[in-house]
TrEMBL record, chain B:
This is Malonate transporter MadL subunit. GO terms for cellular component: membrane. Pfam families: MadL (PF03817). InterPro entries: Maln_transptMadL. It comes from the Bacteria. Keywords: Membrane, Transmembrane, Transmembrane helix. The chain crosses the membrane at residues 34-51, 63-81, 93-112.
Amino acid sequence: MYESMMKVISGYGLISGFAVIGVTMWLSYWLSDKLTRGRLHGSAIAIFLGLVLSYVGGVMTGGQKGLVDIPLLSGIGLLGGAMLRDFAIVATAFGVNIEELKRAGVSGVVSLFFGIGTSFVAGVGVAMAFGYTDAVSLTTIGAGAVTYIVGPVTGAAIGASSEVMALSIAAGLVKAILVMVATPFVAPMIGLNNPRTAVIFGGLMGTSSGVAGGLAATDPKLVPYGCLTAAFYTALGCLLGPSLLFFMMRGLVG
Amino acid sequence: MIIYGVAFLALCTLAGLFIGELLGKLLGVPANVGGVGIAMLLLIFVGGYLHKRGLMGDKSEQGVEFWSAIYIPIVVAMAAQQNVLGALSGGPMAILAGVAAVVLGFAMVPVLDRLGQKKPAAAADKSLNPAQR
């Protein structure tokens, strides 16, 4: 009987994913209602639960994909994988108000450059404080603070050591996870409650997964505005990282 | 039919990602250049056009709305496969770099919001001057 059950659960992975995530959502909304009287949004709890579970999964299996490395739960990987995630993010754009988007358009583009700049400076500053002095390592860690994709792309292009690359990926991961968890708490303080600031927020933070999760937990109506700018962030980072930013760092530290 | 909406969404997504790939090749960037963003813009503008012309029925729209509604569960599934262990085992430097980037980013949101709002006011002032002459 046990074997038959396992066969069904792992053989119908995507369906199991829907079931597991559905139950998680129900539990999260129930917790939100009972423990916080709805003050902390159910989806924020669900995302946090997801992250905790992925930590548990990582500890249990030593793998890199959190909960998905547990064979029985691999279906969640299909549901939360890049394909369905991007498909659903595009679908959120259906409710977008074109006027709001036009009004926020220019600030969105400006925020992209600002966002990559500030993240890069923050990463380089911390790397310097920890004793890194060469332009290659500083640029790679700074690029990692931009996103965990920009970090290794930049590092590979300018020849960083694998240790520095691992650090830059970790910095980017911390950023993505922190944005998911912290956004609903910080949102009221920074005026993140309208399409305009959501466009700016997406451009500043950029990390697609972080912005997608953070805005979903804050207000699902803001998701398309933030994700739209965030979609361009990683590519711009990959473009600037090994070129302009690296040349600037080389000019600064020699 | 609901499938028309789903197919429309699929065509927008594929077209956007395709343009993003081409842009990446052109710019020499090893990434998809804004494919998801371009797909969203396609959906907004082409979808809006079809809606205005009455070419998109209620049922078709439900095909898009379903995926938009299933978005949060998908994000939860995405959260469940982040490399949280990897992020935390990167050591204090990686954690600090990530935290610093996020704190600076949050702090910049209200700053940029204000910056952008001043600009149109200043532009309005400038356009007033020649009119006064």
